[in-house]
Amino acid sequence: MTGPLSHLRVLDLSRVLAGPWSTQALADMGAEVIKIERPGAGDDTRGWGPPFLKDADGNETRESAYFLSANRGKKSVAVDLSREEGRRLVLEIAKRSDILVENYKLGGLKKYGLDYDSLKAVNPRLIYCSITGFGQTGPYAARAGYDFMIQGMGGLMSVTGEADGRPGGGPQKVGVALTDILTGLYATIGILGALAERERSGEGQHIDMALFDVQVAALANQSLNYLVSGTAPVRLGNAHPNIVPYQAFETADGHLILAVGNDGQFARFCEIAGRPELATDPLYVSNQARVANRDTLVPQIAEMLTKRTTADWIAALETAGVPCGPINTIAEVFQEPQALARGLATQMAHASGATAPGVASPLRFSRTPVNDKVAPPMLGQHTRQVLAEVLGLSETEIGAHEAEGTVAAG
Question: Domain 9-217+340-408 maps to which CATH number in 3.90.1520.10, 3.40.50.720, 3.40.50.10540, 3.40.190.170?
Fold first, then answer.
């Protein structure tokens, strides 16, 4: 392993998406990530399909595309935590780990002796990250939290979707589990911060991550629009609350996203569109004026853009440095010359004999490249390896644990 975290070991007690997204990022950066799963079942998302990965003979495996998206580079160890010996094995791995990530319900690991206070006593350098719906404190702390409901509770759906009163208007979730993804990323940031602090103090700490907190934080300018003005933002479809023109428009053959970020770009757009006078009109000369008068400006821009094809507009506007782009399907994304040049679609040799597709990590290090081409593991694939190499158990001892049902090998 060559990444910047190749000297670290992570004990992954998380499942589904937010936690696994964080530990996948740590694995990409070279950390040894040991994922603890239930024998016979594993992470819930292994069964979240179709689609499922097909083996070399074209037969479906038990590996869902969902699971593959968030678990590359990890080692799977199947351990039964309901058994005392299973808990002891995981405790021993925790003693030898730098980081632990878990997303059990509030207090869920205390009964196993795997909560932060218990593990701090035996490994004071451990950085322990808990991910829950609402955090470790507050009146909602014991509630379960899922991405969709948090998008709603956390305000994202109030500003996502077509405007009320328009066709298709009403609240809309984002097309991916964005709150989970952002929580995983914030968790990784927190872990890296705790690692940096540990270099000075020599001590680990507990990181309390909540989906709800993350969603509110990620409202960014929309939350500040409310806190500054006292007026809650509303859904604007593809329009932007603070910038005009900054939305999708119909063209002669499809759609175009026009993302004008300053007055100079607006002037260049107007010149190319054959309406240079708009850029000097007092109603539209500044972004503040354009936001105030969007109701009269946007229809004029919409009418202009229908005169040419999407490709024609992109060619002309890119030459002039006016930000714009198409609305791609996901299939089209991976055919973009930029995606091909950056190698965003990857291939990984999977233990089933199949070739598993993947998406490259966006992290590009100059000296310590990421390890983003190690396929997600099959359930229990590394049970024997980890018990032998990390805990130093003999083949006889491992066999006895298997026979008792404490662990399962893939």
Answer: 3.40.50.10540
Domain 246-331 CATH superfamily = formyl-coa transferase, domain 3 (3.30.1540.10)
For the chain, which residues make up each domain, given as ranges?
Answer: 9-217+340-408, 246-331
Overall pTM surpassing 0.90 (yes/no): yes
Tell me the C-alpha distance between 357 and 330, whole Å.
Answer: 14
Mean pLDDT in residue range 298-316: 96
* Amino acid occupying residue 234: V
Distance CA(82)–CA(410), nearest Å, equals 19
DSSP 271-287: HHTT-GGGGTSTTTSSH
**HSE-up (13 A, CA, CB side) for residue 24:** 29
Residues annotated catalytic, as ranges: 180
Contact 43, 16 (CB under 8 A): yes
How far from 343 is each of 62, 70, 128, 350, 358, CA to CA, in Å? Answer: 27, 18, 34, 19, 10
User: Which residues, in sequence order, are bridge partners of residue 130?
Assistant: 102, 208
**pLDDT tens digits along 342-383:** 999 999 999 998 999 999 999 999 999 999 999 999 999 999
